[in-house]
Amino acid sequence: MVEKVERFKDKVAFITGGASGLGERTAKDFAEEGAKVVIFDFNAENGKRVEKEIKEKGGEALFIEGDVRKKDSVENGVAKAFETYGTIDFLIHSAGILKDGMIHKLPEEDWDDVINTHLKGFYLVLQACAKRWIEICKNDPKENVADYPDRRIIAISSQAAEGNIGQLNYSAAKAGMLGMVKTAGLELIRYNIRTHAIMPTLIETPILKDLLTKQDGKWRKYYEGRIPLGIGEPKYVSKVILFLCSEDAWFMNGEIIGINGGRLDKL
């Protein structure tokens, strides 16, 4: 019998967009390795399903219905997580949407919605966690940075941060997140808070279902032909997130990790 690995026993992971896709896989992987998982998502049906599935496998999970675009919703969600578990150790910003369109056709509301979900959402949840963590540190100052509680922040960006046709809003949001990660890495390390971003290529998730199935799978075949290792599975992303939250990544900060399926140039 293989002994269960619990790298994250007694740790708390707060995952935006945890009700589906990369967030769901990450939530389940954290739970399998002993973490208490908070799923923050506006999709109550899926969120409750993920919570139930984690609990059925012996994990600990809490679903909180909320919207990353709204400050009060984020504040209430983070506050509830702190009230329930005492703290948050890992913040994973996975919430995201796609509303693609060419520059000359992109509606303003689609620009706003994508920017607000990815970029503003990251700002709101980052601020809500960071201010609580900083208060804890200031109330019990330490001489050495490493003596403060170990916290990690992981933002899910995208290869599209380097530009992608038809994704002006998405590319802008994902690129902006990289600047936020670098800034947070500089500001927060004094409190033993490390910040990283990952940049996945195309991964098989619900957000890409329409793209990969339309025109009789034309775009699936196109991307499969351009990514040497093919379209990725969610586990290829979640395992990197867990690594960045593990003791093995203790000496890292402000890193941007490409998960590129073997392709080194643009899709």
Percentage of residues in helical conformation = 40-55%
For this structure, the CATH topology is Rossmann fold
Estimate what percentage of residues fall within beta strands: 5-15%
Q: What's the number of extended β-strand segments?
A: 7
Task: Walk me through this protein's architecture.
The chain is an alpha/beta fold and 267 residues long. The protein has a single domain, classed as Rossmann fold (3-Layer(aba) Sandwich). The protein has helices at residues 21-32, 44-56, 71-85, 108-139, 168-188, 209-226, 234-244, and strands at 12-16, 36-41, 60-65, 90-93, 151-156, 193-200, 256-259. Strands 3-2-1-4-5-6-7 form a 7-stranded parallel β-sheet, with helices on both faces. It is globular.
Give me the secondary-structure topology:
Blueprint: E1 12-16, H1 21-32, E2 36-41, H2 44-56, E3 60-65, H3 71-85, E4 90-93, H4 108-139, E5 151-156, H5 168-188, E6 193-200, H6 209-226, H7 234-244, E7 256-259
Parallel strand pairs: 1-2, 1-4, 2-3, 4-5, 5-6, 6-7
Defining traits:
Rossmann fold, globular, alpha/beta, 46% helix, seven-stranded parallel sheet, 267 residues, 7 helices
Question: Quick gist of this model?
Answer:
With about 270 residues, the chain is α/β, with parallel strands linked by helices. Helices cover about 45% and strands about 15% of the residues. Helix 1 (about 20-30) packs across helix 7 and helix 3 runs parallel beside helix 4.
